[in-house]
Amino acid sequence: MSTTALTRPLVTSLIEDAVTAPSMHNAQPWKFVAKTGSGIIELHGDDARAMPHEDPDHRALHLGCGAALFNLRVAAAHRALHPAVRLLPSPDGPWHLADVRIDGPDDADSELGMLHGALARRHTSRFPFTEERIPSEVIDGLRAAALLEGCRLVVPGAWHTDTVMDLVHASELFEAADEAVRAEIAAWTRTGATGEGSDTEGIPAYAFGPRQYDVTSPVRDFGAPRQVPGRVSARFEKSPQIALLGTAEDTPEEWLKAGQAMQRVLLQATLDGLATSLMSQPLEWPELRFDARDPSSTISFVHMVFRLGYGPEGRTTPRRPVSEVLSFD
User: Fold this and answer.
1) What is the Cα–Cα distance from 177 to 217, expressed in whole angstroms?
2) With contact defined as beta carbons under 8 Å apart, do 208 and 127 qualify?
């Protein structure tokens, strides 16, 4: 198998696709280094974008970088190239998360490449969904997408869904009582007030969605402590359709696998016509995270709560320019 020459235009186009991935509070905690001589693109975590209060173990950071890694794989396959991935290639470099060797078209994955059309369409939607139920065959397809990445997607029954919603309520109380966590969230939200961070990162006010009259759906309210002009309230679906993504182990390598599975599920859901959002709030507290799992399932550790349904797709949130996250060596 031949290694493809990493020209600057090729690498730039690949990374433009990669960075459309979701990340906690849209912090975009990734850096890429193109080794033009060896045909390898390195993925590094950006510790300057870590969240010490909400994500002290950097699990969420790994999930976001895993999602960007999956996008890079999709982008390569779309161009009839084969991305050969090695996770955590440097034991002495905890922020060196993956190497991706871009090989020739001999083994290009056409099924992976078919997801490319969803990259630009996938957006987080914090708006109400309808009560229309998702067909079982669509759910089965999402389960299969997670399995392809070595993870499991579990659709909880009624009692388990109620448990997850109870954890959502509890996490909101925990968050309201923790000044450091509230300050960290505020640092990554953008309401147009003076002194806020760059407008190429974080959660803009237009992506907050409306306030919920009653918290019946697992949607984080980023605008809760602030006055956001023109923000309305709305009733959300009473019977939310959620799914839990998890693994048997809880290691950095599993987190990277879970990030790739998360993105594969999101892209497949987008192609299936579903609106999606992600909820990690109950999983950010060790006191609550373990209770999110179903004791009878094969998932020992839950990494993400998906909210799925039919409704507004949501709008594009900002991304940093590729020049800020890509370097050549």
Assistant:
1) 21
2) no
Q: Which residue's structure tokens are 């990162």? A: 201
Q: Is 88 exposed, middle or buried (0-12, 13-18, 19+ CB in 10 A)?
A: middle
Decide: 86 and 76 in contact? Cβ < 8 Å: no
Model pTM? 0.97
pLDDT digits (tens, 9 = 90+) for 127-145: 999 999 999 999 999 999 9
Q: Which strand (E) or helix (H) includes residue 8?
A: helix 8-18
Measure the CA–CA gap between 37 and 31, rounded to whole angstroms.
Answer: 19
**HSE-up of residue 322 (Cα within 13 Å, Cβ side):** 17
CB-CB neighbours of 154 under 10 Å: 20
Count, in order, helices (H) and strands (E) of the chain.
Answer: 9, 13
> CB neighbours of 246 closer than 8 A, spacing ≥ 6?
151, 152, 154, 258, 293, 297, 299, 300, 301, 302, 303
Confidence of residue 194 (pLDDT cuts 50, 70, 90): confident
**Of 219, 262, 286, which is closest to residue 65 (Cα–Cα)?**
262
**Which amino acid is residue 12, in one-letter code?**
T
CB 100 within 8 Å of CB 55: no
Spatial separation of the C-alpha atoms in residues 46 and 265, rounded to whole Å: 24
- The dihedrals phi and psi of 131, each to the nearest 5 degrees, come to -90, 5
Q: How far apart are the two ends of the chain, measured CA to CA in Å?
A: 23
